[in-house]
Amino acid sequence: MGRALFRFFILRHPDASGQDDKKSKQINIKPQTNKQLKIKIMMTIKNRVQLVGNLGANPEVKTLESGNKVARFSVATSEYYTNKKGEKISETHWHNVVVWGKLAAIAQQLLQKGTEVAIDGKLSTRHYTDKSGSKKYITEVVASELLLLTKKENKAA
After folding, report:
1. 156: in domain
2. What is the rounded distance in angstroms from the CA atom of residue 49 to the CA atom of residue 56?
3. Mean pLDDT across the stretch 149-155?
4. How confident is the model at residue 151 (pLDDT cuts 50, 70, 90)?
5. What's the rounded mean pLDDT across residues 48-62?
6. First CA to last CA across the chain, in angstroms?
7. Gap between the Cα atoms of 92 and 53, Å rounded
8. Are residues 27 and 77 in the same domain?
9. pLDDT for the residue 9
């Protein structure tokens, strides 16, 4: 029996500068073993984040000197489980999200505090030095796709 040929397509999303890269990359994989297949698949999907949660505040949108837009907002995700004592526990985690370009303009129009969204993107870490000279690190999700899960209410009444 011959080896199976697995074909994957990786779609590239706008980069942090907001430039659309409409090219896609095709990867052909001829695995020797199942372990090699798993390793090659994981290499193609590394640094990917998917979140479903609610906005903690309205997006803060800025227009840069270049005319490009950037939107920042926080998303709360909740996790529910039962502990050993039988108590139901709820944990909420907050995630900082950044959106660039056309997606930022869409976020500005459609997103508001409490909106439920699904986000697909990647983790990004940046740093800065504060006034006291300490180096501070920020980890955030750079979103490449947004899906609005809450219906937008018609405010005309």
Report:
1. no
2. 19
3. 67
4. confident
5. 95
6. 68
7. 10
8. no
9. 42
* Token couple for 78: 């909740």
Number of folded domains that form the chain: 2
User: How confident is the model over 82-102, as pLDDT tens digits?
Assistant: 999 999 999 999 999 999 999
The answer to whether residues 127 and 140 touch, using CB atoms and an 8 Å cutoff, is no
- Of 21, 141, 3, nearest to 11 by C-alpha is 21
Q: Is the C-alpha dihedral spanning 24, 12, 47, 52 positive or negative?
A: negative
Q: Residue 119 falls within a domain, yes or no?
A: yes
Same domain, 80 and 125: yes
Q: Are 71 and 135 in the same domain?
A: yes
Pairing of strands 88-100, 135-148: parallel
- Summarize pLDDT for 57-70 with one digit per residue, the tens: 999 999 999 999 99
Residue type, 64: L
User: Residue holding tokens 């303009």?
Assistant: 105
Cβ neighbours around 12 below 10 Å, total: 12
What domain range is 67 assigned to? 49-148
